[in-house]
Design goal:
Number of domains of chain B: 3
Largest sheet of chain A: 5 strands, antiparallel
Strand content of chain A: over 45%
GO molecular function (chain B): metal ion binding; RNA binding; RNA polymerase II CTD heptapeptide repeat phosphatase activity
Order of helices and strands of chain B: HHHHHEEEEHEEEEHEHEEEHHHEHEEHEH
Oligomer: heterodimer
Keywords (chain B): Hydrolase, Metal-binding, Nucleus, Repressor, RNA-binding, Transcription, Transcription regulation
CATH architecture of the largest domain in chain A: Beta Barrel
Shape of chain A: elongated
Function (chain B): This promotes the activity of RNA polymerase II.
Strand content of chain B: 5-15%
Helix content of chain B: 25-40%
Main location (chain B): nucleus
Protein name (chain B): RNA polymerase II C-terminal domain phosphatase-like
CATH class of the largest domain in chain A: Mainly Beta
Shape of chain B: globular
CATH topology of the largest domain in chain A: OB fold (Dihydrolipoamide Acetyltransferase, E2P)
Chain lengths: 176, 448
């Protein structure tokens, strides 16, 4: 799920950035530092949308660096247990398949794939129903339900299932 | 009781309360000390989620408080939670999503980071996979890289006579045609063994193939790219030393295949102490000088001689024939249920035919006082189907000797028996065929 929230961060800035462009430098450094990172609490920071305010800078003794407390608005993405997500399949093997929804890696075990879908090996491994009408392979898009999440400092892992109503393939690249 | 709770509120979705809790915590304050707190809350919730269908109603009534019914939950989970946790991904059970301790089961890092499986699950996967594979008339084949399929050297270890190779490397743009590659970003040069491409192509029709190397992961993947640029043979089945469960050992425990259906191709027997019966030993491929020195040969390397193994008659050609024979025998000649057949038995049978009918006597091969039937050569000869004797008798067909002057050697010459060098046995072992005896003549030693 996406959230638009306000976060705060203390930014250290080198004195060479001081001057007319100080604010711009601060913002671009903030974007570089924060966008694409992951925090256990808020999930994945997708984009910074605006700066709320920049506090008073504090000069550090000895180094000359200045610390600014910056409040910024950003869009974060965090998966929740029970959430329905759409994801792209990245790898299919006999244990199940791996899929990605943006930065989130999701594993769907073959226990949680409907029983009528069977694994087919080969150079394009896939899960297929007995009548061949539905096929999950690399690059398929699937709708799945998250049953477990773990958010690390840098990565988000999820366990998913497609063994439920209205879950499964939503677009098949092979058929297209 | 639980039944009635559910019917009271059948529409509640389990996601909303988690979300509510998150919002709740996040509205309270944004400081970092809160993080731990909510993490704790999270874990408690995770534990509780096992039985979420039963417990939802309470959470709905009071989503902000900590679980009001821990006791009840524990009780319920005793009844309801029969998940055996067959494996984990990112420390979560792959079946129920519950957090697990990190260190149980076998890691399958080569398939995906953070994936672990328990033994029961591995057995289950092997069984289902086996059926699938047999239906396609395939077996498993585990391939070693260095000295088996290719030979690599560090650039700094190249001898002056090998410098010419640097101008003969093939383009990395289209690796599917070349065989000599300079990987400057890894400071390496790699030569693929002649015939390897045809070998992989043909073997892939009979086997599901794995790469298993003692090199590190980055190297293994790079080599896989050279051997299999289209990723049609190995896909993610590339195992490096980082993925094994024992140091300096290779094991089939990380291979998702029934041991009775796995063949291994490797040049190092010692790496596979537990799976010798599955192993087909390869003659080492030494192309570069550094690789020769590493194994203590002081001769000129193939690269220095500007030579190479034969494309049409090299080691891989020979082994491919053996593989085809094993495959054919496994599927077409054996009696009984497919699942009960054992490729190790087949391998043994085929090996036994190599020197079938030969009766060997050894002379000046084993050190004095050494128990002869414990010696490697003795065992090798027996494995190849020969009979080994300690004393001469008229039925003996071959005398294996390092010296033509010994009593037994002279006896052989006198009675028109074959007198061969021990290498004759080794060659038969590598080539899976009895070699012409006249190529392994024993030299007269000068001393009387």
């Amino acid at each position: 799920m996406f959230f638009h929230i306000v976060l705060e961060r203390n930014m250290q800035l080198h004195p060479r950035h001081f001057g007319r462009n100080l604010r711009e430098n601060l913002v671009s450094k903030l974007m570089k530092d924060v966008e694409g990172t992951c925090s256990g609490r808020h999930g994945f920071v997708v984009a910074i949308t605006g700066i709320e305010n920049v506090g008073k800078g504090l000069i550090r003794d000895g180094t000359g660096f200045v610390t600014f407390p910056v409040k910024y608005q950003c869009v974060v993405f965090r998966p929740f247990k029970g959430e329905i997500l759409e994801a792209v399949v990245t790898m299919v093997n006999k244990m199940g398949f791996f899929a990605e929804a943006g930065p989130v890696q999701i594993f769907v075990s073959n226990h949680l794939i409907p029983d009528d879908m069977e694994f087919q090996s080969g150079d394009m491994p896939n899960y297929t129903t007995s009548d061949g009408s539905v096929k999950i392979q690399k690059d398929s898009e699937v709708r799945l339900k998250i049953i477990g999440t773990r958010v690390d400092a840098t990565e988000i892992f999820c366990i998913g299932t497609i063994k439920d109503d209205f879950l499964g393939v939503i677009n098949d690249p092979a058929a297209a | 009781m639980q039944m009635s709770l559910v019917t009271d509120s059948p529409v509640h979705s389990s996601s909303s309360d988690d979300f509510a809790a998150f919002l709740d915590a996040s509205l309270d304050s944004g400081s970092s000390e809160e993080t731990e707190d909510s993490d704790q809350l999270e874990t408690q919730r995770v534990k509780r989620r096992k039985v979420d269908k039963m417990e939802n109603i309470e959470e709905l009534q009071d989503p902000t408080s900590l679980p009001p019914s821990l006791e009840q939950t524990a009780e319920a989970s005793m009844k309801k939670d029969v998940c055996t946790h067959p494996g984990s991904f990112g420390e979560m059970c792959i079946l129920c999503g519950q957090r697990l301790d990190a260190d149980s089961g076998v890691t399958f890092g080569y398939i995906h980071k953070g994936l672990r499986l328990e033994n029961d699950e591995i057995v289950r996967l092997r069984n289902t996979d086996m059926k699938n594979l047999l239906r396609h008339k395939k077996l498993y084949l585990v391939l070693d890289l260095d000295h088996t399929l290719l030979n690599s050297t560090q650039l700094i270890h190249m001898s002056p006579q090998e410098e010419y190779l640097k101008s003969q490397t093939d383009s990395l743009q289209d690796v599917s045609k070349g065989s000599l590659f300079m990987l400057s970003f890894m400071h390496m040069m790699t030569k693929l063994r002649p015939f390897v491409r045809a070998f992989l192509k043909e073997a892939s029709e009979l086997f599901e193939m794995y790469i298993y190397t003692m090199g590190d992961r980055a190297y293994a993947l790079e080599m896989a790219k050279l051997l299999d640029p289209q990723r049609e043979y190995f896909s993610s089945r590339v195992i490096s030393r980082d993925d094994g469960t024992h140091r300096h050992q290779k094991g089939l425990d990380v291979v998702l295949g029934q041991e009775s259906a796995v063949l291994i191709l490797d040049d190092t027997e010692n790496a596979w102490t537990k799976h010798k019966d599955n192993l087909i030993l390869m003659e080492r491929y030494h192309f570069f000088a550094s690789s020769c020195h590493q194994f203590g040969f002081n001769c000129k390397s193939l690269s220095e001689l500007k030579n190479d193994e034969s494309e049409t008659d090299g080691a891989l050609v020979t082994i491919l024939k053996v593989l085809k024979r094993v495959h054919g025998m496994f599927f077409d000649e054996l009696e009984g249920n497919l699942v009960d057949r054992d490729v190790r038995q087949v391998l043994k049978t085929i090996r036994k035919e190599v020197l079938k009918g030969c009766k060997l006597v050894f002379s000046r091969v084993f050190p004095t006082g050494f128990q002869a039937d414990n010696h490697l050569l003795w065992k090798m000869a027996e494995g190849l189907g020969a009979t080994c004797l300690k004393e001469l008798d008229p039925s003996v067909t071959h005398v294996v000797s390092t010296d033509a002057g010994t009593e037994k050697s002279r006896w052989a010459v006198k009675h028109k028996k074959f007198l061969v060098h021990p290498q004759w046995i080794e060659a038969a072992n590598y080539l899976w065929q009895k070699q012409p005896e006249e190529n392994f003549i024993v030299n007269q030693t000068k001393n009387p």
